[in-house]
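Hi F.,

I've been meaning to write this up properly since the lab meeting, where we talked about keeping a consistent format for the predictions we share between groups. The idea is simple: the sequence comes first, exactly as it goes in, then the structure tokens exactly as they come out, then a line or two of notes. No screenshots and no reformatting. I'm using this chain as the first example so we have something concrete to point to.
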Amino acid sequence: MSIDFDKMSLKEMRELRTRLDRAINSYEDRKRREALQAIEEAAKEHGFNLAELTGSKPRRAGTVAPKYANPQDPTMTWTGRGRKPRWVQENLAEGKELDDLLI
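Output, unedited:
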């Protein structure tokens, strides 16, 4: 494959570079996933999971369901983990309890 850069405009070369960067990143991600899968399979063959061998915590699957909702705007939710959102803090400052915000 031969590309004649002298005949390309600057815009075309930049578009080509963007497409090439995406292709490289996609290739690297795919190879990384394949390597990780092969390592996990090898660990399973020996009766372990990857987290046990590396000493890391296993990855959790999925997300945590929301536990609290804003009474003024039910689309604003909070799982109860991490920093309290501003709307939770404001409701608590108004004298409400966390139990009042339960879904």
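Notes:
The chain has two domains: 7-54, 68-101.
Residues 10-45 form the longest helix (36 residues).

If this format works for you, I'll send the rest the same way.

G.
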